[in-house]
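Person: Please work through this fold.
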Amino acid sequence: MNKGGYDRWLTANSASGLAVLGLALPYPSAAGIAFLGWGCVFSGWLSFLGGGPRTPADVLTLLRLLILFAGVALLVLFHLPLFALMLFTVSLLLDLVDGWLARRHGETAWGAVYDMESDQAWVMGIAIGIHALHPAVAWVLLFPALRFLQVLFLKFTRLPARDPKPVDGNNTRARTVFAIVAGGLLLSLWPDLPTGLRTGLLLGCLLLLSGSFLSDQCHLWKQRRKGGAL
């Protein structure tokens, strides 16, 4: 994979992603449309950098993205939250299947990156959807913003931002955190969920996700102090 190209992609993707999230604060519906355009442009660019889908897992990851975009469109353009919730759920479940396919047919560095960035797009899409339905929890937009801010901070401090498995090649903790956070976001999208329960659920998931990012950050700092290869 073109590492220099991916570095540039990360910077542009993070900066523009934060711009879309900023638009979401006053204009959630417009941000949904902007998200679809952002997603198509940057997923296409990333696919080009990686030479396109190469394995069954990569193809399934692309399908996950298409289902995600359809879910966001149903939510922000046609105001069909239950149908959107179904598509978000299907997209998330396919994440489990593409992980199984990757292990069965051989994991690749490109596949790991593609999967990680698709997870980020999923979190961003559902966060924009939750905000569109429940403006009182606008801080749900912090979920995708955390990753974008982390990438830009790592670039500023010249620490590596492109490794999907920064902790010694093991992403078990990160995948567990993502599964819990994704489940919490799905539940929060349910239209009839009591407001207090939604707020508490999102707050707990946000704290968990923040701790995960902080753990990765601390690991990279320790590696730098030890003079490890970064």
The chain has one domain: 3-226.
